[in-house]
Amino acid sequence: MEPDRRRGRTGRDGDGEGPRQRIQGELRQLRESRTREGNRQQRTETAHGTAVRARLDQPRTGKPSLFSLPAYDPEAFGQLSERIARFLGTGRFIVWMTVVVVVWIGWNTLLPENVRFDDYPFIFLTLVLSLQASYAAPLILLAQNRQDDRDRVNMEQDRARAERSIADTEYLTREVAALRQGLGEVATRDFVRSELQSLLKELDERRETAELL
């Protein structure tokens, strides 16, 4: 009987381990087949010259062309434009620009002709000032747009805070009204005192009545 029991127990253990190993083997074969299929597809796409993405959650990076614009960081460019716009709106910029214009005109008017580089009517100076104005206007507009975006975000946050404060105020108002309604049903000190006094009077009357009888 012992060999039969051992044989039966071994058979059950073998039957228990066989399906597990078979499932693991099938999963391993499925992974290998998917890996081979992915490698085959990748080689096919590479052979045809198409862009290959290893994962679907990563953006496809195209090849840079001759006519594509250079990549830049919009946030860094916006911060730089705001810095320049703030400097253009200060008195320091006006003072420095006035000094440059005065030195420019004095250099090309008072010094000898062999050292002058922009004679009257100062065409080069006009070109420089026009170039400076043509760059200053878009930078100022960009800084204003960023400031408008920040103001819009701040207004939305203020509106959200105002809505939350209104909701909290309404909730507190309802709670105070419920407390007042609940306190109206609670016995006050004066009411308890008056009830006790009436009970004492009633007891005194009964005592007097009992004494008379």
Automatic annotation (TrEMBL):
Residues 1-67 are annotated as: Disordered. The keyword Transmembrane helix applies. It comes from the Bacteria. Keywords: Membrane, Transmembrane, Transmembrane helix. InterPro entries: DUF1003. The chain crosses the membrane at residues 93-110, 122-142. This is Putative membrane protein. It comes from Kitasatospora viridis. The lineage of its organism: Bacteria, Bacillati, Actinomycetota, Actinomycetes, Kitasatosporales.
